Amino acid sequence: MPSIDLAEAAVAVHVAAQTVDAGLASIRSVDEDQVLAYDVAHAASAVATARVLLDYGTRGDLEARLACAFIADAIHDIATRVLGREELWGVGRGALDPAHQFVSTYRAPSFVASLAGVDGPRHLDDFFELVRDSFRRFSDDKIKPVAEHVHRTNADVPESILSGLADLGGFGLSIPEEYGGGAIGEANDYLAMVIATEELSRGSLGIGGSLITRPEILTRALVRGGTPEQKSHWLPQLASGETLVAVAVTEPDYGSDVAGVRVSAVRDANGWRINGTKTWCTFAARADVLMLLARTDPSTTNHKGLSCFIVPKPPGDGHGFSFAQQPGDDGGAPGGGAMQGRAIDTIGYRGMHSYEIAFDNWWVSSDNLIGNEAGIGRGFYLQMEGFENGRLQTAARAVGLMQAAYEAACAYAADRVVFGKAIAEFELTRAKLGRMAFLITAARQFAYHVSDLMSRGEGMLEASMVKAYVCRAAEWVTREALQIHGGMGYAEEYAVSRYYVDARVLSIFEGADETLCLKVIARRLLDARQ
């Protein structure tokens, strides 16, 4: 076993960072050099994670081993992006050679295999360990026992989970105490959300960790842009779980291009009439309100003409819904509006269901425009702030899903005997499990770091980085966990098959990987150079 040298690790990270800087300087524009910009964005995210792991590695021997293994793996990944494209990156051949010995040492199969089965220390204080324990017990007791049934039958989220999560305070993690939530305006608020999300997602992505994402997004918009009356009215309802939320942003022709959405809101009778179609609106049937982004200025085609609304609706269940407004609905609505939802069947991420929703003159009160008159034209910014938090939360969801897959793979590998011994004794299996261990640790620690940044009003770029990097890692971890299960992994008798199909959505929602890398990460990195 090599002696751990974090100074050598720091040098290797510096070499990788120089390569990323060179690649960034070689981008003429994101639109002209999309492949380069995409690779640089992922490489920059890997370097950002590696820097966090350098600090983590100072906390103990195991932490140092996990840090070095991750850093070596990350540099190897960057090398595969650069090899054969050195001219494109603006570097010479062998640009990463100064890190070669470090990578060789800590990517050695024997070293990676030595990490099989370990669980990287989290270094949480007593308060956060209590948060983790509370949500883990809820996940084990309430979510896991029904997760497979919901997945295989494409059923709805059980009401017992919704009420139980409300009792636990899960819907109010980011809502200020004065409105009935658990947020006290400190760094703890974001970290508690990350920890809770991981543990819930460990039970199930679809009926666990994703439940608190949508109220989090609406909460951020209300806290930042809502009127005092709106905060007093809505935040206590969100915190208690009395009002459940879905987010309606994506449209059939406008996915990650949020600024281009065309669903319209036109003034009518002390309110607004909503017309158009939204898609991929998760949890739309069961939700009591939709946080809806609509165009209030028809003369615009960009982000400047968008506003955010809270759209009340009746709760529903099943795989579709149809509602018609009657006179007097929603605080005096003149009636005549209609809303129809069609469920979109998916290979995974089941339970909450995603919907295409058609609005036909659906009326909403002027009081439900976030910010009232001052909120006109601010919708894009309020939505994006919520999405930044959503990206951090998606990274936490990915960590929880990876942790579940890792635990399942370790358990199966210990029990499964082939050729006279448990597969956990084979080097290849142990190397796979070892890589899972350091990827999960790195992802978790980076998410913790970003939560600290965001609590200080920073970390917008890093929130996108952690989402991009961790969600790709989750695909590999769940794939290899399924592979370790062999034929049984492909069967629905083991939960690992659910983890695999669930992981695939992570790089698609909350900002598709390509759009996130090109339009957010690469552009912000380029802007920072100017």
From TrEMBL:
The lineage of its organism: unclassified sequences, metagenomes, ecological metagenomes. GO terms for molecular function: acyl-CoA dehydrogenase activity; flavin adenine dinucleotide binding. This is Unannotated protein. Gene3D superfamilies: Acyl-CoA dehydrogenase/oxidase, N-terminal domain, Butyryl-CoA Dehydrogenase, subunit A, domain 2, Butyryl-CoA Dehydrogenase, subunit A, domain 3. Residues 129-242 form the Acyl-CoA dehydrogenase/oxidase N-terminal domain. Keywords: FAD, Flavoprotein, Oxidoreductase. The keyword Ion transport does not apply. The keyword Flavoprotein applies.
